[in-house]
Amino acid sequence: MIVVGGGPVGLAAALELARFGVPTVVLEQRDSTSWHPKTRNFNTRTMEIARGWGRVVYERLRAVDTPPGWKSPIRFLTTAIGEQIGEIESTGFEGPGAEISPARPVMSSQDLFEQILYDACAATGKVDLRFSHELTAVLGGSYRADAGAAVEVKSSSGEKYRLDGPAIVAADGVDSLVRSQLGIALHGEKDLHHFINCYFRADIESHLDGRTGVLFFVASPNAVGVLQPLDANGRWLSQIVVAPAEWSTERFTPERVRAWVRGAAGVSDLAVEVLSVGRWRMNAAVAARLVQGRVVLCGDAAHQFPPTGGLGVNTGLQGMHNAMWKLALSVRGLAGWALLDTYDTERRLPAEQTARQSLENHRNVGLIAAAAFAHDEKAMSAEEVIRTSRRYGNHLGVEFGTAYTSRAVIPDGSTPPEVDDPYSDYAPSATPGCRAPHVWLIDQALSTLDLFGSGFTLLTGPTGKRWCAAARTAEAHTGVPVASYVAGTPALVDNVDRFLELYGIEADGAVLVRPDGYVAWRSRGDLAPDAGAVADVVRMVLCRSRASKAPAGSNFDRT
Ligand SMILES: Cc1cc2nc3c(=O)[nH]c(=O)nc-3n(C[C@H](O)[C@H](O)[C@H](O)COP(=O)(O)OP(=O)(O)OC[C@H]3O[C@@H](n4cnc5c(N)ncnc54)[C@H](O)[C@@H]3O)c2cc1C
After folding, report:
1. Interstrand relation of 215-220 and 74-77 (parallel, antiparallel or unpaired)
2. Which residues line ligand 1 at a C-beta cut-off of 6 Å?
3. pLDDT per position as a tens digit, 316-341
4. 401-541, what's its fold?
5. Is the pTM of this model over 0.90?
6. Are 368 and 224 in contact (CB under 8 A)?
7. Is residue 515 a contact partner of residue 455, using CB atoms and an 8 Å limit?
8. Distance 118 CA to ligand 1 centre (A)
9. Do 210 and 307 contact (CB within 8 A), yes or no?
10. What is the CA(498)–ligand 1 centre distance, in A?
11. Does domain 2-65+104-188+284-361 have CATH number 3.50.50.60?
């Protein structure tokens, strides 16, 4: 497989493909992973995905987390040490807790994440990491009828060569060459703002007098922008909106950065060591197609959001996770290519919702500063804007609660529970199309989520053993692994009642979970499984047969 881009999404895509036994070549034009911190947050759902890459990777990511107290709140201030206008509790950054997920989020920096993912790729033995190799053209694969994909690559010595593979994962970022060569448009708002992003070392912490937080939005005559603590120990990042003419690292000199940081902190003699200065443009856009032929767009190549949401890289990684099992099974001939199209069907909505909401958050931040400083009687007060900005940093709904409807899900007639705000609030549900809920097993040593491997997983209640035979038949008939587990057996003691309640089944019911941890199908109970029932379900989900009888438990007949 050809993966274009060795940023977080490209590296993670290679890791995912390795889990399915698919070797990859990662092409990256830079000579090393990023050393500019860029984004900071791997949220809880992303860290659930990281558990699938093994304990070492998960623990290394957890080890770079910021100390407690630095994931909430989002503060709005004159300066970091000055008057506070208001704050938003950001539970999304702190995570939903061990009742909802076995994973914990990480607030750190992209340079550290990328190095960990790079090392993990190298350790698989299945990833050929070609840094200083730039993709210069897509030669084949843009049509489904193409027998394979091919690209032209330029190495650091200037030599050009052709690379063939079964498909292309385009994780080549915001200005994706693959996307433009395929003529895929970006829909949405582009070039909304130009950011200068400064990475520096300064002891702001000791001036804060215990005022910790995840984001310090500041607005004063000396500095407008946001200060972002990276490790609560002197490493910081800042984002400054500038006019297009000022969007230049030559114009934004280290001396100017130092003056800005002192103004933002409110400490005129602060020692500031500037480490690097980056530039990026703010878009709120989603690609017109996420899949074309044998090419799959992932990460910023597929969608771009304002940073005010902390969901850019997370949505990229979660979309990648949705796509890679489908791609792996398709190229191995175990699934129909139509399965890959469900990546677009399933991930477009969360991408569009996140783009909209992140943009609204960005606008609200502007309104808060304006309300605080404009002294306009008719304008909303800063407190009012902050109240209406609750969704900023509170995104558990879009992170966990998206219920997919597509050919890769077989509905059972139920709908997920309603919540007050589908963007912010999440109620666990095993309705087909939902993320399979987390339940602790074996004295909290294991979660149901840890059972989901590189195949399907069938979970059944204490009297549902016969489903396991059907799962074995499915594996034998389809060639795709179908693991099965019976709740309450010695290996899976604990929380049987909670498992049955959250998964919405009787003791003899069963749930089939896809490799990405989403529920494919559910039989709530009272159905005697016939030997071929699970095989029928797996074939339908994999888009392998166009005509099939409705599998037991579904209310749906696909023709
Ligand atoms: C300076 C900066 C600051 C940022 N700050 C924030 C922030 O504060 N908050 C936030 O949410 N997001 C931020 N972002 C965005 C965030 O970094 C991205 O959302 C995230 O990196 C997306 O990951 P990705 O792997 O999809 O793309 P990228 O990280 O952009 O990776 C794409 C990779 O593809 C490589 N590539 C591109 N073209 C080719 C080619 N032709 N051949 C080979 N390789 C190629 C690139 O070199 C790059 O390494 C920032 C981005 C930048 C640039």
Report:
1. parallel
2. 4-10, 27-30, 36, 38-39, 110, 134-135, 171-173, 177, 197, 239, 278, 280, 299-300, 307, 310, 312-313, 316
3. 999 999 999 999 999 999 999 999 99
4. Glutaredoxin (3.40.30)
5. yes
6. no
7. yes
8. 15
9. no
10. 41
11. yes
